[in-house]
Structure formats: structure tokens, C-alpha cells
Design brief:
Layout: H1 2-11, H2 19-31, H3 43-46, H4 60-94
Biased composition (Basic residues): 83-95
Pfam families: Phage_tail_T
Protein name: Minor tail T domain-containing protein
Length: 95
């Protein structure tokens, strides 16, 4: 929300014509801290494509595979965090 207010202060009120650009810029700002060093996202990567013909239709299996891949990353991250927490607990108990 702070970024949206800052955008309005710099460029004026957000209108429906520019809303997709604002959301794309916000998405770019949200993703940028998670990108590796030296990597940047492009605004067009976050823009909504309004034409159905602009992107090939994905099958249900493709979408399921994408969701499973995302979930696997979350599970991996959760396991890493739980391992670190166990190590910290063991280290504090031994001290």
C-alpha cells in the first residue's frame, strides 16, 4: 500500500487505464528482493496479458505440474527451517 501511495504522489491518481501498469510495477517491487544478485525483472514479465491468443493455452496437467513445483519449493524451505530450529535447540541444550 505504501508503494501505491508513493506512486500516486509521484505520478498522479491511479486510473483504470494505468492500473495494470501499477500492479505490474508493484509485482516487480515485490519480487526484486528475492532475485539473485545482478538479476532484474522486466516490467513486461508482470503485465497482465489481456488477449487469450497472446499466450498458448495450458492444459490441466501443465497447471498441476506448476503448482506441484511451487509446493515442493515451499516444503523444501519448511524442512530447512525446521532443521535449523532443531540444531539451535540442540545447541542451546548442550550449553
Amino acid at each position: 500500500m505504501i508503494r501505491l501511495v508513493a506512486y500516486q504522489n509521484l505520478y498522479g491518481p491511479i486510473t483504470p487505464e494505468r492500473l495494470d501498469l501499477v500492479i505490474a510495477r508493484l509485482g516487480q517491487d515485490v519480487v526484486s528482493p528475492w532475485m539473485g544478485r545482478g538479476r532484474k525483472t522486466k516490467l513486461r514479465d508482470h503485465l497482465i496479458v489481456w488477449s487469450r491468443n497472446a499466450k498458448p493455452q495450458r492444459s490441466g496437467r501443465d497447471l498441476l505440474a506448476a503448482v506441484k513445483g511451487i509446493q515442493a519449493k515451499y516444503d523444501e524451505q519448511d524442512q530447512t527451517q525446521s532443521r535449523r530450529a532443531r540444531r539451535r535447540r540442540r545447541g542451546s541444550q548442550q550449553s
